[in-house]
């Protein structure tokens, strides 16, 4: 491989890591009001560990609506925000129970245009139990 190709490959790898780090960093900032114990990313799955024994449906909706999707709804997040994330897991402090949001980026953009009961149904249709 010539020198130019090596630089191009290294730049792509670096960009990929920077995008992943920025998504996780943005989520850590957005979720600060809930004092999560950890916000980690492994491959295309982001895991949020809340400092609670049980993640209630109301807490999950709050974390997703006012935390994860808030940047998209307020148009403050970059256009590729969460595009490389397939799932956001919101779990209790024991990592045993919680909820999984599937396709968070697409859902947040669609929910931005919906309101009330329709937005809630969209959220529920993209949510799995953990």
In a nutshell, what does this entry contain?
With 130 residues, the protein is α+β, with helices and mostly antiparallel strands. 49% of the residues lie in helices and 18% in strands.
Task: State the main characteristics.
single chain, 130 residues, alpha+beta, 5-stranded mixed sheet, 5 helices, 18% strand
Q: Could you walk me through the main structural features you see in this protein, from its secondary elements to its overall organization?
A:
This protein is of the alpha+beta class. It has one domain (3-129). The chain is built from five helices and five strands.
β-strand amount: 15-25%
Major beta sheet, strand line-up? 1-2-3-4-5
Instruction: Calculate the terminal CA-CA distance, rounded to whole Å.
Output: 45 Å
Please tell me how large the radius of gyration is.
16 Å
Number of strands: 5
Count of discrete structural domains: 1
As residue ranges, the low-confidence spans are 8-21
Give the topology.
Elements: H1 3-30, E1 38-42, E2 45-49, H2 57-68, H3 70-73, E3 87-91, E4 98-102, H4 104-113, H5 116-125, E5 127-129
Helix pairs in contact: 4-5
